[in-house]
Amino acid sequence: MTGYVLDDTVIEAFAFSDSIVVSALFGMTERDIRFSVPAATLARAQVSLSDDMISDINSMILHLPALQLEPLASTSEVTELARVLGATNEQTQSEDFAAAHAVVVARKFDWPIVTTSLTRWEPITRVLDIDVREMRDSPE
Known about the structure:
CATH class: Alpha Beta
Order of helices and strands: EHHEHHEHHEHE
Oligomer: single chain
CATH superfamily: 5'-nuclease
Number of helices: 7
Mean pLDDT: 89
Protein name: PIN domain-containing protein
Number of domains: 1
Distance between the termini: 14 Å
């Protein structure tokens, strides 16, 4: 199965009805492509959203089969998150739980992370070998 891990920039862009992001996501769901939404990434995106936008995004995640919310569901996933945070703290100058959780999920499924901003990922890709793709018309 083909899939992508969504970062907070994609979730925010979708909530603000960015035409490229909306059309790319819906176009790919029609091709049976799956998307994983790490819970920490969703939380980070929701910080900048209105209550109505949050409700819309949550409803979409709950009702679209192509979208799967990924919690930290085991101690091994928590340990992996801690390792990613430890490896990236020096580059990011802070604990970026949203990015770290996206990395954990991307490794779990062996899927790339999709973003609207490669700049957001530059500090992390300097220290971790991860596949991050910028969404334009499609992350492919």
